[in-house]
Amino acid sequence: MRGPDYWKTRVELVEAWLDQLVRPAGAELAGGLWEAMRYSLLAPAKRVRPVLLLAVGETLDVEPERFRYAACAIECIHTYSLIHDDLPAMDNDTLRRGRPTCHVQFGEGTAILAGDGLLTLAFELLGTCPFLRAHPAIGIDVVRLLARYAGPQGMVAGQWLDMHTAAPTPSVEHVLNIHRRKTAALITAAVEIGGLMVEAPPAMIEALRVYGEAVGTAFQIVDDILDLTTPPERLGKTPGKDVQASKATYPRAVGLERAWADARAFRDRAVEAIRPWDTHGLLTSLAYLITERQA
Questions:
Q1: By Cβ atoms counted within 10 A, which residue in 120, 137, 217, 241 is the most buried?
Q2: Above pLDDT 70, what percent of the chain?
Q3: Rounded to whole angstroms, how far apart are CA atoms 212 and 256?
Q4: pLDDT value of residue 98
Q5: pTM
Q6: How far is 34 from 97, CA to CA, in rounded Å?
């Protein structure tokens, strides 16, 4: 099974895991906090990062169950970043994943804490993972890698650069610098963590790093394009916000036509990097789905 059918079944699996794992254990004084966390986390979403993580495992014939906790941890971190991105102090957005943003629904203070809760819960989930507890050296590497890619050397740095860039015509190099951190870093973390958890050889880990960075960059370029070309009911968020905020987007730097061409070039780079290892064609098919999506 490959392509859209694979994606659909794995999204359903990840969402079932999220519903099981991200809920209070019993009577919870901070019930409103959990409600806000689950509201954003369980909203309809593409689940790109956990699906790619599962695909790495299944490329080497490892069952998805090994990755239950790691997949959910990565999606918690991604969702926390979206909650904080949408805040009035950052992008000030009112629509995310087809519904009002967390701060619109629950208030700014609760939204901040919901993001904080998802971030810290992610590392509790990793510490609960049976495979990582049985393989502590791999567990340490997974925690270190995820913290590096999600933190001030990766995603958080990208968020800061995005917030502080409003040049009339940003350079391609500067836009790519933002995209590689804000978006591609966590996608790269997902596939590298998959590699670590299947105990892949170093050459495959390096191929996964190249694949993740290239697919992640392609994903964000397509996201920039769709922000200009897709109606809100299909996009699931407010279109045109990047233009209104003078954000450093890829189409702004090079135009729409070249942006599409460059997204596909990054996709091809990813496919070429993973070709020797992609025995089932899963990672190749997912790279194409990510690049050719319409929302």
A1: 217
A2: 93
A3: 23
A4: 86
A5: 0.94
A6: 18
